[in-house]
Amino acid sequence: MWTEVAKTDDVAVGGLKFVKLGGAQAVLCNCDGVFYAVARRCGHMNAPLDQGSLAGHVLTCPLHFGQFDVRDGAVLAYPLDRHFGAEPLPEQAQRVLGVEQRLQRKIRVEGLRTWPVRVTAESIEVDI
Ligand code: FES
């Protein structure tokens, strides 16, 4: 069932918008005027992807920088180790990050669910 979820003006080019699709949460992605809808929660540790960034078709998670293709939800890059610059972190922070990195390696990253999207006049519609 096609349902209007936003107007085209609601999502700038390169922008992301959180929308509800019935009981599901999704992110609308505007890739140079072509819209895609993917699951809002990251396939790694559930970060809200509407807080991430979009470059072309690549959606980057705001938490650990995993990357997904918004066209099909495929995982493109696994979580990246964070870089805090040249200055060493305090010892306690280094220990915490070391534990976090070891745990992250044991967590699978799932691709994102996607939904068909169409634009009619100025409405963005998703088949839910
Ligand atoms: S929660 Fe998205 S990459 Fe970790």
Describe the structure.
- The chain has 128 residues and is mainly β.
- The protein has a single domain (2-81, 109-127), classed as Rieske [2Fe-2S] iron-sulphur domain (Rieske Iron-sulfur Protein), CATH 2.102.10.10.
- It is built from one helix and eleven strands; from the N terminus they run E-E-E-E-E-E-E-E-H-E-E-E.
- It has one helix spanning 91-105, and strands spanning 2-7, 16-21, 24-31, 34-39, 53-55, 58-60, 67-69, 75-77, 114-115, 117-120, 123-127.
- The strands form three sheets. The protein has a four-stranded antiparallel β-sheet with strand order 2-3-4-9, with no helix packed on it. A four-stranded antiparallel β-sheet has the order 5-6-7-8, with no helix packed on it. It has a three-stranded antiparallel β-sheet with strand order 1-11-10, with no helix packed on it.
- The longest helix is centred in the last third of the chain and has 15 residues, at 91-105.
- The mean pLDDT is 93.
- The structure holds FE2/S2 (inorganic) cluster.
